[in-house]
Amino acid sequence: MRFFIRKHNKPPTVIIVALIDVLIVLLIFLMVTTTFKQRPALKLALPESSQATKTGANEAAPLVVAIDEKGILRLGVEAKPVVADRLKTEFLEAVGKNPQLKLAINADKNAPFGQIVKVMDAAKEAGIKTVNAFTKEAGKP
Length: 141
Known about the structure:
The protein has a domain at 48-137: Nucleotidyltransferase, domain 5, CATH 3.30.420. The longest helix is centred in the first third of the chain and has 18 residues, at 16-33. It has helices at residues 16-33, 87-97, 113-126; strands at 48-49, 63-67, 73-75, 80-82, 102-107, 130-133, 136-137. By secondary structure, it is α/β, with parallel strands linked by helices. It is elongated. Strand 3 and strand 4 (80-82) form a beta hairpin. It is built from three helices and seven strands; from the N terminus they run αββββαβαββ. The model has no long low-confidence stretch (mean pLDDT 80). Helix 2 packs across helix 3. A five-stranded mixed sheet has the order 4-3-2-5-6, covered by helices on one side. The chain has a two-stranded parallel ribbon with strand order 1-7.
């Protein structure tokens, strides 16, 4: 009688070196894509304040008006240029969308004070109740 001898098949092998290469490529990809930082479009030197407070993460983002050292006004996160005469209508549109809108003024420390006053007047006329200014803590660069 002839008996069949079963051949023991080897279990499939996993090539660890190839898996490590793929893992390293994924790790590099994740490190490169997560290190991007948002940089402001305007380079402003903020005035210092010893009473500066940090806003909480749970608050709604305010509407930002940036004023550079030459007095040029820029509105919103996209920093679109706007003239002082158009500010009131822009604020009225924003208040129409969000009645609890907060305004933040991001002015350079050398910005003309008249521009800051124009922004505050336009905000008051549009019915914005909360107006804040961005500052940096004293003694920090």
